[in-house]
Amino acid sequence: MATPTSSFANLSPSLLANPELCTIDTCPLELASIEYIPTLPGNALYVSLFALCLLVQLYFGIRYRTWGFLAGMIGGLVLEILGYVARIQIHFNPFREDPFLMYIVCLTIGPAFLAASIYLTLSRIITVYSPTLSRFQPRTYTIVFIIFDFFALLLQAAGGGIASAAEDDSLGQIGINIMIAGVSWQVFSLGLFAVVCLEFAWRVRKAREEDLNQQVEFVDLRRTTRFKVFLWVLAGATLAIFVRCVFRCAELSEGFDGRLANDEVTLMVLEGAMIVIAVMLLTALHPGPAFGGMWANATWSLRGAKKRRVVVEKHSA
């Protein structure tokens, strides 16, 4: 929140002491949590798009039993909806502190859940092509990146909690710094994930046909256009979330009074639009149908391994 200056000399002491009592008619926006009135149509549009994607994700997740992927998408989409609902509340009253904190915390940690859903797909993609082509076991990637994501989420949530409860600027800044650390770790995780994916793609490209055909159950799936397009969709969603995280780091590093934090156009493009692109890509080409209903078969769990052995035996018979 901006610090009052001598230009507010005509305001009553009660409003200066407690800006939450302000209205647009009685106080300047410099006393508000953000120094602009959030657009109602733009934020309402984002709420509608995220709500629509949430319904579609629920349908596909239940139908194709993509439970882990569904959990991450639900967590991320619900937080995005709450964040933009808070911005709508700020539109009507920019002086209230609670909607501002809700907006900051929800939009900061929401993409971590979406990233978790993306991380879960890598082990299944490796299984579909051939685990022998991977530098590590498929489950290793899942465990490592989910731990990375949880650590990023923990930092962001802790930082948001401290910033929300802070009663002075110094403690609030500590919370912001912890949030920056969490988002920065998420940038690192997404970057490393992209490198790992590119390295595996290179191994697949150089692999012999007999190496790829070891996974008999998935030979036809790999050749489908839908599955190949899904790989590009996954790359696009990862890039969109990565761009958003870089922006969020820059925004938080300037503080809540910084230029980026008070530039709505930049936020709506580099925050909102990037996440909309990511979730719409992951919804329009959901992994359930993209995997041809074989999402569960491609898991690295013991149950998935047993299923694959049964399929291989049937093909060999």
From TrEMBL:
GO terms for cellular component: fungal-type vacuole; plasma membrane. Pfam families: RTA1. It is a multi-pass membrane protein. The keyword Mitochondrion does not apply. Keywords: Membrane, Transmembrane, Transmembrane helix. InterPro entries: RTA1. It is found in: Membrane. The keyword Transmembrane applies. Signal peptide: none annotated. Its main location: membrane. This is RTA1 domain protein. The lineage of its organism: Eukaryota, Fungi, Dikarya, Ascomycota, Pezizomycotina.
